[in-house]
Amino acid sequence: MKKIQEAKISGKRILVRVDFNVGIENGKVKESFKIAAAKETVDYLLARGAKVALLTHLGRPEGKVNLEFSLQQLASDAELILCEKITFVADCVGEKVKEALDNLQDGIVLLENVRFYAGDEANDADFAQQLAENFDVFVNDAFSASHRDHASVTGVAKILPSYAGLRLQEEIHEMTIIKDHPVHPAVAIIGGAKIETKVPLINNFEKTYDAVLVGSKIAMEAKEEGLVFSDKVILPIDYAEGGLDIGQETIEQFKNIIAGAKTIVWNGPVGKFEEKPYDAGTMAVLDAIVASGAFSVVGGGESVEVLEENNLLDEISFVSTGGGAMLEYLGGKILPGLEVLS
For the residues of 208-219, what is the DSSP string, one character each? Predict the structure, then answer.
């Protein structure tokens, strides 16, 4: 990939695709991790004399303006997290963006939700041109959006000189290590729902990992669909009442396997963690990962939420911003947002 370290930055107007698609409650950001992930790239660009504008989506406004999903709600929290003054612009294309960049003296610009325009998800070429027209350079720093062939991810990258941000580079480095060069014993823990999205991941880990622990709804779906895996893939042997969590025997089995691991990858809780007592399995898995001392990589919105709620982000070797993107990359798919930067 082309990297921002190779780009001419000084005096340039740079559009940075980030992923600030985070939960908001009573006007406050519930999770700061994804916003903080952009800080290194923002600092790098500002230190080299660039004018920086951040572009992201939030929620599902379905291609029209819906203030419930306005990025203005994030501006004050993002200022604190990124330690930069933020100028919010109530659009992501057009004259308002140009004026904000012309007048920018310090700090950064935060553009309005790109999905207020249907042209983003449709990857409309005209909309991509509108996004690009006020900028000199495009930087993708949103690994978690890079599996999307959208105007704000791939469309703009085909128009402007485009580079991978520092966070995106770090994500790919860590994902490549755990995919291709894990230290053994290597254990993958896969949870969540939608077994059809997890089968490629399970199959890939089955080839190179020593154990793949499968929990939550996808384990039930796998059994219901009669899916057959090798002995490396370990499905629950019991469940909590109602089937909303793995049972105590499975918890002990998973803990014993995790304890001997040197590499651990975790994507998706193993039960309905947001509702007690069905968080017991997920918390036991998390405690076992931390106690193992293994090189650990965790990704997926719900898994990261568990880490953040329990102040354990710093106990994990690498926390990925990617959910679906992590699944697809580790499952062997080529991500459009990365391919366009090569």
Answer: H-SEEEE-HHHH
